[in-house]
Amino acid sequence: MTYVGRFAPSPSGPLHLGSVVAAAASYLDAKAHHGVWLVRIEDLDQGRSDPAIAQHILDTLAALGMTPDRPPTYQSRQQHRYRDAAAALRGQGLIYPCGCTRAQIREAAQTPGVYPGTCRDGLAQGRSGRSLRLRLEQPGDAFDDRFAGPQYSQSGQDYGDPTIVRADDSFAYILAGAVDDVLDGITDVVRGDDLLPTTSPQRLLLERLELTPPRYAHIPVLLGPDGRKLSKQNHAPAIDASEPLAVLRHALDALGLRPFLGRETFPQSVNGLWRAAICAWKDYLADRQATISR
Ligand code: GLU
């Protein structure tokens, strides 16, 4: 089976070094497997998505030598996919309205960030439906992450019933991303490990739709000086694509590839750097897998 990988940025801000690291990891993995690499713009959140930023992201990737093998796709243009998936889940009686606000969930949660199932058996008194959630009936999940190793999780403890349709009526990331990965024929998802907690809910959702999830590899996300994930929310600076070599060196270093490149100085052209990095990635992965199985 041909390897198909992807990078799936949300166009709510320009690429920062953390997102370039995620893009580079998925690109390297696809190229090291002689695969196809795609870009999907995750622009369902109308309030936070900007078409100009989506274009800027694509231009920045191109300047860094990462050009997708097929035209990029936009989630806002394929809503029928998510509607069909939501309808199939509803048809199985797995969707229910939830009337909780974020603050109410925070207050009621036994485990921080985990929805405690408040509206699972009917809307709590005095509340009206805001969002729609998927009832996860499976007790838990287990899968092998190619980078992070074996993963085990329990529904209700590690994650709650995920939101499928948000309060503003848009389809939620968990549904849209999982469905797109399968319908786009993605064989391998390589992304930051901040998304590891959403992986089992995505896998369990796909299981209900009788769709086979892709393989996953979650790489460590880049942390800022304050120890928090570099992100648009905490104002990580946009990268300067006029210096592609400098940005790529930084990203490959952050990925931990420098020792595998086996040289102190990186090649002096974007193409040369990618060629070296693709070879280095194979050793890096083999080393990672040896560590996992030890
Ligand atoms: N759009 C998500 C983000 O920018 C990434 C989704 C994914 O890779 O599955 O964080």
Strand content: 15-25%
Radius of gyration: 20 Å
Unreliable segments (pLDDT under 50, ≥5 consecutive)? none
What would you call the structural class? Answer: alpha/beta
**Average pLDDT, all residues:** 94
N-to-C SSE string, H for helix and E for strand: EHEHEHEHEEEEHEHEHHH
Share of helical residues:
25-40%
With strands numbered from the N-terminus, the spatial order across the biggest sheet is: 3-2-1-9-10
* List of distinct ligands in this structure: glutamic acid
Distance between the termini: 28 Å
Describe the largest sheet. 5 strands, parallel
Output the number of helix runs: 9
Shape: globular
Number of strands: 10
Summarize the structure.
The protein is of the alpha/beta class and 294 residues long. 38% of the residues lie in helices and 15% in strands.
Folded structure, characterized:
- The radius of gyration is 20 Å and the shape is globular.
- It has a five-stranded parallel sheet with strand order 3-2-1-9-10, covered by helices on one side. A three-stranded antiparallel sheet has the order 4-5-8.
- The longest helix is centred in the C-terminal third of the chain and has 24 residues, at about 270-294.
- It has nine helices and ten strands.
- It is about 40% helix and about 15% strand.
- Helix 1 crosses helix 9 (about 270-294) and helix 5 (about 175-185) packs across helix 6.
- The model has no long low-confidence stretch (mean pLDDT about 95).
- It has about 290 residues and is α/β, with parallel strands linked by helices.
- Glutamic acid binds near residues 10, 42, 177, 191 and 195.
